[in-house]
Amino acid sequence: MTTEQRAEIICNTTGPWDSKTLGGSWKRGIVNPDLEEERKNLSFDTDELQKFFYTEPMFNFIKEMNELCAKHPELYEGLLHKYELTREEIFDLHWKRIHRLMELKPEIFLGHDYKKFWYIWSNYFADVAHPVAQHQLMFCACIDFLGSEEQKAEWFEPARRMNMVGCYAQTELGHGSFVPGIETTATLDMKTDEFIIHTPHVKAAKYWPGQMAMGTHAILFARVIVDENDYGVWPFMVQLRSLEDHMPLPGIEIGDVGAKLGFNMIDNGYGIFTHVRIPRTNLLSRFV
Ligand SMILES: Cc1cc2nc3c(=O)[nH]c(=O)nc-3n(C[C@H](O)[C@H](O)[C@H](O)COP(=O)(O)OP(=O)(O)OC[C@H]3O[C@@H](n4cnc5c(N)ncnc54)[C@H](O)[C@@H]3O)c2cc1C
After folding, report:
1. Which atom of ligand 1 is least distant from the CA of 263?
2. Are residues 127 and 226 in the same domain?
3. What is the pTM of this model?
4. Structural domain of residue 200, as residue ranges?
5. Does 10 lie in the same domain as 113?
């Protein structure tokens, strides 16, 4: 490549240093000719390598997603300025992208293929994570894998359609890796056929779950107490917010843990429960 050609590429791809023109060669669809030349000389078929690496069905899915993004730049273009956005703007951007993807490809959201979800979220939603990663990959998966057939019939599709958005609420301030030490209680009231979810002290506050600050539901892990006997830690479906006005339900205090070093498009939250009653049938019961 001549010096003039190189200079032209640099001018075309970088431009003046202001936020509107950042994005460089990717934004303008320019590929460095040296790179293009090298790619022509490859001694192997890149499609075959991808099929080997991802498997053929995944390879086809990736191709489909790439074509979709090429046709619909609104799925990715806001990302060019992600480091210049406020936290609220980041949430807004990612929610709009997810909403658009749902409009364009609703079938992806309804399936049970968690590998595809992982691929979409990590490759198309960038930053490794996005505002409903835990909802799709943990909350929906818990219903799918831990729920009884009746529970799946009731919750799986509304969850997949995001009519309910949920978190996976296991970690507590005092108990992360040590899951058997979880202290949130679920005490059975036999008279009303309900469990009472309660945070006995601040160390038992749920802390960290993604989607706990803004979500409507939680798969919440708590110790089952029946007649003062402790039956260990089990998962429960707990509604956090009203589906009418999105306010937290009585007895539930939830919020965001605040800005973090990364993952700021995720609402990692905290939750404190004061004698919150849920139906007994909200214990996820595939393995009961
Ligand atoms: C960004 C982010 C998102 C998260 N999202 C969720 C979520 O959606 N839902 C949720 O429930 N939780 C979530 N968590 C919490 C996460 O699952 C916990 O942080 C994790 O389980 C570790 O718990 P801990 O932070 O209390 O650390 P600890 O359990 O206190 O561990 C601290 C250190 O001690 C070590 N350690 C612990 N136990 C042992 C042992 N027995 N032997 C040797 N070493 C040990 C650990 O390896 C670690 O280095 C999230 C955390 C982060 C940072």
Report:
1. 1
2. no
3. 0.84
4. 166-282
5. yes
